[in-house]
Predict the structure.
Amino acid sequence: MDHIISALIHASRTGDLLLLQEIIDLNTNLELRDDKGYTPLIIACYNHQTEAARLLLRSGADVNGIDTGGNTALMGVCFKGYADIAELLIAHQANVNLLNGNGGTALMFAVMFGRNELIALLLQHGADLTIKDNRGMDVLDIAVQQGNEQGLQLLKQHQPINQ
């Protein structure tokens, strides 16, 4: 990995806004990936660096960019439980229904890890309860499997009437 990519990834991970801005000012491609396939935005979000994520988004980072597993920044924050960054990503038009390489969605991550505040947020922004992952499971199935009773209740409140 060359020194610009290394610096970009480091600045995104640590929230070093001055360094990040310097790198952006060089017209650096913000979709460069580290050796694990993570974009700077995914790294900033996963490490709860809200201002770094905001700067990257304002500078043109792809809000729906994916890592090598097909995971987006929104999926990562739903796993970690960072509602503030999820709101930022959604405000920048993150697609709440993208599928990763296993057919999982951000809502599935929120349900699986008991991030009920994020479940409510995603549902408010059009998350689809009917999507099934590669195992054939939808979010209701995942909530039951994980014993997430509060999440299950939230999902049932938003379940389409014909189900």
User: Anything to note?
Assistant: The two ends are 50 Å apart (CA to CA). The longest helix spans residues 3-14. The mean pLDDT is 95. Residues 111 and 143 are 6 Å apart (CA to CA).
